[in-house]
Prior knowledge:
Chain A contains 16 helices and 15 strands. Chain A has helices at 9-16, 41-45, 54-58, 66-81, 87-119, 130-136, 138-159, 179-206, 211-216, 260-263, 293-299, 306-316, 331-350, 402-405, 407-421, 429-442; strands spanning 17-23, 29-36, 168-169, 172-173, 223-228, 240-244, 250-255, 264-267, 276-279, 289-290, 370-377, 380-388, 394-400, 459-463, 469-473. Chain B is built from 6 helices and 9 strands. Chain B is globular. One iron/sulfur cluster binds next to helix 4 of chain B.
Amino acid sequence: MSKTITIDPVTRIEGHSKITIQLNDQGQVDEARFHVTQFRGFEKFTEGRPYYEMPGITARICGICPISHLLASAKACDDLLGVRIPAAADRARRILHMGQTVQSHALSFFHLSAPDILLGMDADPAKRHVLGLAQAHPEIAKEGIWLRMFGQQVIEWLAGRRIHPAWVVPGGVATPLTAEVRDKILEGIPRAIEITQRALELWHGVLGEFKEEVATFGNFPTHFLSLTAPDGGLDLYDGNLRLRDAQRGIVADQLDPTAYDEHIGEAVEPWSYLKMPFYRPQGYPEGIYRVGPLARLNNADHCGTELADKELAEFRKLSANGGAVLSSFHYHYARLIEILYCLETARELLNHPDCLDTNVRAVAQPSRREGVGVAEAPRGTLIHHYRINDGGQIAWANLIIATGHNNMAMNRGITQAAKKFVHGDRIEEGALNRVEAVIRCYDPCLSCSTHALGQMTLRLQLLDSNGNVLDEKARA
Amino acid sequence: MKDETILITLNGKTVTATRDETILDVAWANGVDIPRLCHLKGLTSVGACRLCLVEVAGVPRLLAACVTRVTDGMEVTTDSPRLQSHRKMIVELLFAERNHICAFCVSSGDCELQDLAQKLGITHIRYPYRFPVEEVDATHSRFVHDPNRCVLCTRCVRACGEVEGARTWNVKNRSILSRVMTDLDQPWGDSLTCTSCGKCVQACPTGALAEKGRATGENTKTPGLFPRLTSMRGTRD
Ligand code: SF4
Ligand code: SF4
Ligand code: FES
């Protein structure tokens, strides 16, 4: 008998995330929790596979940032091989990563968050999505779509395929950059920069209207974790781990990312499948930290490119007395600055005199049993850690994804927003939007964050102190 | 006489052939493509996969073109709805039998099974997947054997035995449990007979045998090497 198994995308989204808001005996918000039923089967599934299949396999974890997994995985494989990849391969991988970051950040900002930001948090949910944006601000919507497409095209031109390309391989990249591709990317960069600058102007223009959101969208002290270049500058592809505290003081610096597990622990809570990473020396839950664009800009001493550095100086002014920027609302701002940085950096790399060098792959056999690869995915630090047997088969794998790092901060963020916006035993539309928008600040890489293009895809439950459901909201 | 010229009808067209040729040979010579998997030019034919089935007028059952010799006046049809449906079924069963995840397979884009599925327009598998648990053998220093992707064509067995003469590969077990094995089911890396020539890898139509270190889609092969090798050393009788 044949059997048809249907995976219903709606139930998948349902299963993916739910927020519960817990009231205390006095009927006030006690705590909000973001529940994730995340598929962690990948690590188990990869056991026994040859190590060099890992970039291809893990790139399928996520359809939104496959390149980040591809890169972190290839870097873990480089580590297994014990090679330093050729300089041209390093540049090529970076350009690919820039394309990925631009498209991912553009999606997050223009498609998912701009409707909230430009149409307002209280706007009619039926219009508060990218199509509504296209009606109200056709230019911005069009430009946002173009920018994302440009990022995707960079990936496609370089790697041959937009999603799941196999161009990044252990030891480097499969084929060198061609003059044609270089010129095509260079041609698009000026327009992409203009679009980003216009979006930044807009952002500065409306920011004043979001004082409450800035104050309550995950605005609390935490540490910030990211890679930084050896000189302390922004780096999305490589470097060492840095941790700053809420005052922007350096807590730890230039930590070897391959020794991440000495610094990062993973706690488990019974109500979430997503582990809770924390900074070991401070323990759980005090060691809470955030990753991603906000963390990277708080951490970096400079971007190293002209336009991005100018904006970074503005970004710094957001916090009084030189501390870190704490409000998760500014993840949006940080994303725009990073887009600028990516475009400027890509231009530099493409203008490098040895840009078309054909030496792009180091061929070797594994020389180590254990390898770690770390990269800054659009959403934050991504760690791949493998152990192999003599034949090169995966004996054990551990993956820490960006959404995982931010898990604790997301919970704290929605608790803060719920305390401010949820009153009584009902969930009002405006409260729902805001709690949901907090999650969107972190741009979690769950399919729910993109599938419905900014529509409600989370389920919100209001529970009394005895755990009874008082109200439940979800938009179809 | 083996090389006597005869006439047969191939899809309604009269063509010449010699008595020692198979239907597949004649079709090939006349530019007619018959799907096949276990057959590989340069190796003996075993008629195992049944993909090359054709209709012969006057014969009620279907015949495997790779092992059926032509006879004078034979009327052969190489494509029909009936044949299509059989071929589809065979390929679907091959997919259902093991774990083929083309998305990250080293052979994706250069795989005979994948090609067949595409050519036959297979978009889904009507049979329940068996999801067998198969251990990858990565003990050899240069090659990997991944039974998840094996179609049991035995091309590796024949390439190794007939061309290299090492006889490292063989088939163990029966029926659905059949698997190819190296030596007496020892890890490939421990094999005393394997000469590491790589012919089995070149003969394998899928990603079941691959060179180590190839990334997704990089395991391209040259099965066309076998007719050259065998003709250079004279045919085996
Ligand atoms: S062997 Fe062929 S059909 Fe099987 S997974 Fe690999 S590419 Fe796909
Ligand atoms: S390993 Fe390859 S050549 Fe050998 S039987 Fe399996 S599919 Fe055929
Ligand atoms: S090719 Fe004829 S039976 Fe396989």
